Amino acid sequence: MALSPIISIKxxxxxxxxxxxxxxxxLLNNESNIQVVAEAVNGREALQILEKNADIxxxxxxxxxxxxxxxxxxxxxxxLFPSKKVIIxxxxxxxxxxxxxxxxGAMGYLLKNISNEELMFAINHISVGGKYICSELxxxxxxxxxxxxxxxxxxxGAHIDLSKREIEVLKLIAEGYTNHEIADKLFTSRRTVExxxxxxxxxxxxxxxxxxxxxxxxxxILK
Length: 223
What we know:
This protein has 223 residues and is α/β, with parallel strands linked by helices. It folds into 2 domains: 9-143, Rossmann fold; 145-218, Arc Repressor Mutant, subunit A (Orthogonal Bundle), CATH 1.10.10.10. 50% of the residues lie in helices and 13% in strands. The protein has a 6-stranded parallel β-sheet, with helices on both faces. It is globular, with a radius of gyration of 17 Å.
């Protein structure tokens, strides 16, 4: 099944640096199906906004913020607004932050140097119930943690039949190419590549790029 954009994903952006916040807001609002409907500079302000505005689908938050940081905000969100989907967008790339964030209820963890395409893919994927760790961070964690395959939620070692094109896309994902770069290499559209990526995640039953690539290595698709 191809990734179908939701008509409108309403985002609460929680980031204390004005320039960074404005840049992210501009990127998101350029997407036809994503809209930043509220902004906050720390966790306390975010909670106040959520108390008044329940019509928010995704919360995109930084970790290092004054008064109430991202981890403390996550703890409050789990108790007060458990249905909200939370994505961490941070410069902190150590796996301890990732595990802590996910254990506190975050559905995704992204680094701030990711491509625009990967950011949009993550928001779309998580908005419909998926989980996602950005590719760069996933590869770093695989290198640092040999036992990662035992701890990735949703990993299924069973063989899955993939099409020739899905295998081509998977190999390019493993090489670190973005959706746009893959589309150029395969002479297709970015939307088609996003659909293949979504199919790969659904077929293998995994939750993120690291688990997808681990599965491919385990069953011999990737050497």
